Amino acid sequence: MRGRREWLADGLLGAVLIAPVLVHQVMNGDVLRVLAALVVAAVLVVTVRRSPVVGLLVVLVGTLADGNFVFGLPVMSYLAGLRTERIRVVAAAFAVIAAGGTALNFTVFGTSLGEWFFLAMSLLLLGVFPWLAGRYRAQQTRLVSAGWERAARLEYERRLVVREVRLRERARIAQEMHDSLGHELSLIALHAGALETTPGLAEKQSATAGRIRESAAAATDRLREIIGVLRDEDDAAPLEPAGEQAEALVERHRATGMTVLLTRTGDLPPPAAPTVHHVLREALTNASRHAPGATVRVLMADDGTRSTVSVTSEAPATPPRPAATTGLGLAGLRERLRLAGGTLTAEPTPDGGFRTTAEIPHDATPVLDNPPVEEEMHDARRRARRSLAAAILTPLVLATVTAIGYYPFAVAGSVLDEAAFDAMRTGTPRADLVDVLPARQTPGDRPRGCELYTDGNFPMAGATYRLCFTDGRLTGKERLR
User: Which residues form the Histidine kinase/HSP90-like ATPase domain (predicted)?
Assistant: First the structure.
């Protein structure tokens, strides 16, 4: 629904556009045409905002009845470009106008070729050019609006920096606890499990070791549940100890009693090493918790195009005690690899074990959830520049093509030499001028007994000379321009 101000603005615009027509018809005293002009004004008020193309067609049809409608043509064309996003609709309307107008002028109104050319140039100047200017203005407005929106978004983000710094610090601490403390708790549980099953240990000490193992496992699960969700997958995982290599991580697990068989082929590139270490640590920790005493096979390979790490644990000899798990570690790994352009597969094996496999292509493109703002702004600027170029070049090209097509027809056989015109004398029989007079005359209104010729002026090729004959003799000659 339009507001009161919009109706007032559209009404004022309609009144201004129809004013020349009303003044002309009132002076002529034609009441019916005055009423028709008021109806056209009402149509313009209704269509000027939502359907300016319809208003443009109404104005063009109105020029057949009153030439003063032509003052509204550039305004409606500009509004059509400003408020109509579908370029095909307007382009089709102009095509229909050009084809229909040409047919009417030549078949119904008997328009001369020169008059048609003038009307075609008028359509380009008063119709096409304002439409392209309005389209450019619309593109420019959208570009400015997008710029202000981006500025507002950046300002909003700037105000949140202080609060985000604190939240990021908390997330960093939580991540370190999740990655390092959780890992150490799992190792404590593994040591306690080994102590619990040591032969010759007193029953009371064995029970105590069992409670330590259970408490460490429960603490690990609780730690994952509380702070595991705070992980920022865009940040590199901290390594504990700092700078630890994959072989050192395997040795630390072997020291706890785990059987870990490592196979390595190729050298991992430095960019992939942190991700491989992260995957290996998570997979070994899960194997120590869910498959105690089982053999774990680790394969790290690099073929020059991708790095692969696979951790496979056999089925445990005795099923582990059920424990509540959150699964956040594997979910975080999967998302981390997705953002890096890699993949993670975690699934049971046919023999009851479990395999975790990660692949990291060297030339992987990181996944972006949203396109960069700079790219959006660049595209908007490019569209605005294209609209400006179209607004300037399209009328020029159309006018040039039309002129080039019209000019040969206008001047063919109708050019009178200036020296021959100056040499003509009144009273000379026309039969004596046959050799210097062109074969055809230039189109245009001429008095009875007179002939019009051109000097070949471009692009209109309008009438330049007028020769009048009476009883076959030259009675007057006139230079028109």
Answer: 275-362
Q: Is 81:94 a contact under the CB 8 Å cutoff?
A: no
Residue 455 CB neighbours (<10 A): 20
- Cβ atoms 354, 346 nearer than 8 A: yes
Single-letter code of the amino acid located at 306:
R
List C-alpha distances in Å: 373 to 138, 174, 376. Answer: 20, 31, 5
Q: How far is CA 461 from CA 155, 164, 438, 444, in A?
A: 61, 74, 14, 11
Q: How far apart (Å, rounded) are the C-alpha atoms in residues 407 and 4?
A: 52
pLDDT band at residue 326 using 50, 70 and 90 as cut-offs: very low
Helix H or strand E segment including 466: strand 465-470
Q: What is the pLDDT of residues 56-91, one digit of tens each?
A: 888 888 887 777 888 888 888 888 888 887 778 888
Residue reference for tokens 């196979």? 263
Q: Which residues pair with residue 263 across a beta bridge?
A: 299
Query: What's the average model confidence in pLDDT over 292-308?
Result: 88
Q: Which CATH superfamily is domain 161-361 in?
A: Histidine kinase-like ATPase, C-terminal domain (3.30.565.10)
Location of structure tokens 């660049």: 378
Question: What is the per-residue burial (b if ≥16 Cβ within 10 Å, else e) of 389-427?
Answer: ebbeeebeebbeebbeebbeebbeebbbeeeebeebeee
Give me the amino acid identity at 68: N
What is the chain's alpha carbon radius of gyration, rounded to the nearest angstrom? 44
Q: What is the fold, at CATH topology level, of the domain defined by 418-479?
A: Beta-lactamase Inhibitory Protein; Chain:B, domain 1 (3.30.1450)
Q: Is the Cβ–Cβ distance between 438 and 415 less than 8 Å?
A: yes
**Do residues 272 and 360 touch, judged by C-beta distance below 8 A?**
yes
Report the C-alpha gap between 269 and 281 in whole angstroms: 18
pLDDT-derived band at 299 (thresholds 50, 70, 90) equals very high
Of the listed ranges 203-217, 401-415, 416-430, 455-469, the least confidently predicted one is 203-217
Q: Domain spans of the chain?
A: 4-157, 161-361, 418-479
Q: List, in sequence order, every residue forming a beta bridge with 312; answer none if it has no partner.
A: 297, 355
